Amino acid sequence: LRFDEKIRVVVFKSEVKGVFCAGADLKERAKMDDAEVGHFVKRLRNLMDEIAALPVPTIAAIDGYALGGGLELALACDLRVAASSAKMGLIETTRGLLPGAGGTQRLPRCVGIGLAKELIFTGRQIDGQQAFSMGLVNHTVPQNSEGDAAYQRALTLAKEILPQAPFAVKMGKLAINRGMEVDIASGMAIEGMCYAQNIPTRDRQEGMAAFREKRPPQFIGK
Question: What PROSITE patterns does its record include (predicted)?
Fold first, then answer.
């Protein structure tokens, strides 16, 4: 996906009805020694980092349970859509653990330090509406009879992104992600570098021409 220039948006959904991702298999984990557990969690953390680093926008469609590593997967995505009946939580402390695949870092960046600490310290599970009210998800929708309401809403959101200039969207994502990790002056410099890369693109020229000619732009990603 990283190197396929035809990809504009990636949507993460589950084929298991009622479950987005239930996290690690604790029965499997119980068979591992301490070294194996450490290696397993490091690989999982690296996977989440790879997902977060995808150059195109990513959307998690949460149509059921997203617990532990499952919520960490959703947090590694740029955008999240949840059914109102979905259940989410970093429940690791209820099992004698702490989030180890990015949850302690991405949740506070998403909802703020105070709420993140409360959710992690208590291991509380929240539904889609609660998640929306605290900014954990971008949209919440009533579940439908097929059990894929969040996925359908995620597709609608993806279709809003698709017509936009692909390279500009990629640079926007890069500028936001890198800029959030530094002071604002450094962030402005990052934005300037990303903008400079976008200036010579054919899509920028097409966007300007389409505006002048009062027609929809036809972006090609170059």
Answer: ENOYL_COA_HYDRATASE
Of 69, 70, 103, 128, catalytic: 69
**Burial (0-12, 13-18, 19+ Cβ within 10 Å), 21:** buried
Helix (H, G, I), strand (E, B) or coil at 215: coil
Is 24 an active-site residue? yes
Handedness of CA 93, 111, 23, 43 (dihedral sign): negative
Catalytic residue (one of 24, 60, 86, 101): 24
Catalytic, out of 64, 72, 86, 102? 72
Is 69 assigned a catalytic role? yes
Concerning whether 36 is annotated as a catalytic residue, the answer is no
- In order, the DSSP letters of 37-106 are HHHHHHHHHHHHHHHHT-SS-EEEEE-SEEETHHHHHHHHSSEEEEETT-EEE--GGGGT----SSHHHH
pTM over 0.90: yes
- pLDDT per residue over 125-181, tens digit each? 999 999 999 999 999 999 999 999 999 999 999 999 999 999 999 999 999 999 999
Residue 158 is a catalytic residue: no
Q: What is the pLDDT of residues 2-26, one digit of tens each?
A: 999 899 999 999 999 999 999 877 7
